[in-house]
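Tutorial sheet, problem 5. The two components below are modelled jointly, 590 residues in total.
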Amino acid sequence: MVFYLIGLGLGDEQDITLRGLETVRWCARVYLEAYTSVLPVDVARLERQYGQRVMLADREMVEDGADDLLHGADTSDVALLVVGDVFWATTHQDLWLRARRRGIECAVVHNAGIMNAVGVCGLQMYRFGETISLVWFTERWRPTSWYPRLAANRQRGLHTLCLLDIRVKEPTEESLARGKPVYEAPRFMSVAEAAQQLLQVAAWRRERRNGQANPTNDAEAPEPYCACAEAYTAQTLGIGLARAGQATQQILVGTLEQLARAELGPPLHALIIPGELHALEAEFVATLPQVSGRQ
Amino acid sequence: MVFYLIGLGLGDEQDITLRGLETVRWCARVYLEAYTSVLPVDVARLERQYGQRVMLADREMVEDGADDLLHGADTSDVALLVVGDVFWATTHQDLWLRARRRGIECAVVHNAGIMNAVGVCGLQMYRFGETISLVWFTERWRPTSWYPRLAANRQRGLHTLCLLDIRVKEPTEESLARGKPVYEAPRFMSVAEAAQQLLQVAAWRRERRNGQANPTNDAEAPEPYCACAEAYTAQTLGIGLARAGQATQQILVGTLEQLARAELGPPLHALIIPGELHALEAEFVATLPQVSGRQ
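Model answer (structure tokens):
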């Protein structure tokens, strides 16, 4: 029997493929992976469309052994539905390997993910460099390993897709210290927060160059102070992309300074930092909604 | 009214999304873009599934003005179906812009493309660098601008997706010189041909370092002789991916030397050159079919 990973695409219950729908309908059990992304519709809508009960698979279920998830997949078909495409998160590759190790056959039904949706910004897909992830800074943890990656992309004239932090069923730092997890409310980083963080790091680099005291612990976060050239300034162009591939999708072009004050509504958000724009790309970007109100 | 660009996904008529199918059914005219990729099934199968006549849009129709394609799109809905996702080829962005310039509203229905399908090789999507395109060398034209890009990806430890040449309705060089186009038979570069071309360029670089006469005109193709470090050797690992996302999909892992002799069957093919493999990636790649027969 087969363990299926099935991409749902970016929108709602209408974005599954015919192949995906057919597969879901014949599976004995169907799970929805509900923590690396967020489904913009109610699970009940999926169930009505699929004619199948859809169970939520949370972080613990997917990551910790996956015994429940894979139980019986050697004797009947089991599906895990994933928002977007199936292989964006390490989690799903890990799950695939664990299933294979148990001798369970695995199959995939692909669908569109954020990397497809980003095409609506008019940037060439093959001119994107390494994707980076921005996570919220805390008092103790300010990961900036993305900085030299972004700088390297920019130096090569490449576009950068910045994936923004998603915190679903994350234990609080205090509760972890006490050994009994208490979960934070779900949070999704906005384009404005991402732009603010980029500007914050640029400010830290300036302070450092000026010999001022540094607010971060270099040993924990050495990267923004690496010798690489500045990756961007407050005037660097960014493209905010909210709810990509959904009916309420919103795109906004502006400088990082402008985007730091922009409001793009409900999650998920992504930030794209274009590299050098070819003529066609520049023309396309000029047709997108601009912070300044021009279009 | 609306001009829709609708991704068909990578397989057959079952890979369209429910949203895509619904959209196709209400459109007044439906075209299939049939030259930047190749549909693995007969158009008649699409027509049966969609309950709509599907007209082929060839290169001239899509690129030269698009008058026929967009005719009437201001008064009735028109769809262009694209194999994979819609925004991989510059062509489709160009078409979108031309429609917008005529005041026609445009919309997109995303689907999986090669960048999604590549996930089945177990490499992390966010660790891919710039995508490169390999085209067949001719006597007069040996474009190698991909070399420094591949080298830069490799230097940063990033994976590289190599898209392989597709020649559909290409006029022959002789016929162009005579001013009356005669078209070549469709050709699709195989993983073996791609690996052979990589090895050929490595050999040219070696000859050049050894001061030997150079078979190419440096002014036309300076890149493989740029000062960048060697991007790969014959022993570099590659992953051949044939018919990605289709039922007959085939994956083969081997050195470039091994892949240069590999047979992966019908098109389309893609070649992936992994960068540094993280532990999970290495474990996943080890489970894939290997040229050596190990798995």
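Marking note: The two ends of chain B are 53 Å apart (CA to CA). Full credit if you identified this.
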